[in-house]
Amino acid sequence: MKCYSTTFFGKRRIALLVASCLLTVSTTFGQNKYQVAGEAILDKLNTKFYNASKQLYVEQVDGNENIIVERGGASYVWPASHMLRALRYGALANPAKYTARLKSYAYALDQYRQNGKYASDIVPGADPLYDDNAIVGLALMDAYQQVLPAETGLYERSLIGLNYCLNARDANWGVPQKESELGWGKFYSQATILPALHCALIAKNSPDPQYLDIAKQYYEKINNVSWKLRDGNTNLLNQFSFYSNNGWSLTGHGENGAGYRAYQTTPNIQLALKLHQLTGDSRYLDDATVMADACLKQWYTPGKGVREISFWGGSDMVEMLVDFYEVDRNPKWLMAARNMVDYLIDYGRDQLGYYPGSYNDADGTWNLDRRYLFPASIQMMGQACAAAAILRVAHVTNTPLATKNPSAAKSSELAVFPNPVGNQLSLQASHKLAGGQVTVCNSLGQIVLTAPVYGTSLDVSALAPGVYIVCWSSGQQRLSQRFVKK
């Protein structure tokens, strides 16, 4: 991964009442504040940083918001992966607005492929990095599973990054950052944890047992404190460790892998959560709790933001906390995630409305008051990270959690279950859904199904796999909810 900086936002927009069931599902049908802020960032990225000729995003713009042309007119692949995450959360929060851009961008990343792997840059001859391939592969898998399940081409492309890493494993399953480091005994955090998480995601729907086996074996190795990657005292992960002379060390080949960044520990927590869901083993959930508490202790102060740079774990912290909340329903995780994003929105924007993007802790972390600063340049990656974090919170605060059983719906919420659904979608609200009409729209905003309401079940068997919005309306009443068709 290379080094950059980023920040942005536009002028504040007035929160409008939702005029359509394709927008948000907030309890008052006023637009969720996180969605307003998140869409503002994403829209800024889509206008100021987008190179339409390549369907890619540029690395940075100057203080006048003019594109700085470099490296063939596109960002490095690491920022590109964060941009893909931002678009994914945009599509989850507002499918009609962002799904088409997510799809086109995911396929446009083919321009980074060189010699059967993802290079660090689109410029011919750019070196590939194992951690870059791991994060791009994981981002493509998330886009495929969560938003575009019919796009099997994205699944196949995700395997390019995954297999590049898995095929480089040494006897201890260590993978370095660069091809030139093969044979060093290097166990690099991002090049091992992210592929393990990727395998866990595949295992959810794959009959092939190898993926779950790889995820479980990697988890044991990564979290074996004698291997030095995980610190047994702090329960945080170092950047890398080395195996040599029949032992493990944080130093080797003139390098030192000691030191914590949140993006090293947060995917390990997400891996533990996935393994808990796949196996039912509470050991994984208990371990995830220990590590999540360690992250909060290390980087978070309530009301004062996150002491971490966006792409080195600021956005990853928010994503991990929301993921945790969706698994165990403990409100402390969601409260912390919202508090982090609240501070970012209220204090993290400079005079041009941009968010932190520097690689330096002195001016790049998410706990700074930047309201009176004027940026000389703005890089894309920090803005994409901010967009992803804010829209992740928007999505969970807009949408009741998916469930196989009906839960008590709030006064103006529509609950749908099961979600994902196969054939029959059940609907429930706090009041009887008597009369009116149900409309189902696809991710492009097209109406694909309408039916009068005679009961609380809707036949969706004819729908293609994908993400949809179901909307019930009767007179002035309107309820809507997102669901996934398997």
Core attributes:
signal; T9SS type A sorting domain-containing protein; 16% strand; 486 residues; 4-stranded antiparallel β-sheet; Glycosyltransferase; MUG_Protein; Secre_tail; disordered N terminus
Report on this model:
It holds the Pfam family Por_Secre_tail. Residues 1-30 form the signal peptide. Residues 416-483 form the Secretion system C-terminal sorting domain. InterPro entries: 6-hairpin_glycosidase_sf (IPR008928), MUG_Protein (IPR053169), Secre_tail (IPR026444). This is T9SS type A sorting domain-containing protein. By secondary structure, the chain is of the alpha+beta class. It has two domains: 33-398, Alpha/alpha barrel (Glycosyltransferase); 414-485, Immunoglobulin-like (Sandwich). It is 41% helix and 16% strand. It is built from 13 helices and 20 strands. It has helices at 33-48, 77-93, 95-108, 130-146, 152-166, 189-203, 210-222, 262-279, 282-299, 314-328, 331-347, 361-364, 380-398, and strands spanning 50-51, 56-57, 60-62, 113-114, 117-118, 186-188, 240-244, 247-249, 251-252, 255-256, 306-309, 365-366, 377-379, 414-417, 424-429, 437-441, 447-452, 457-459, 466-474, 477-485. The strands form eight sheets. Strands 17-16-19-20 form a four-stranded antiparallel β-sheet, with no helix packed on it. A three-stranded antiparallel β-sheet has the order 6-7-8. Strands 14-15-18 form a three-stranded antiparallel β-sheet, with no helix packed on it. Helix 2 runs parallel beside helix 13 (380-398) and helix 4 runs antiparallel to helix 5 (152-166). The longest helix has 19 residues, at 380-398. The radius of gyration is 22 Å and the shape is globular.
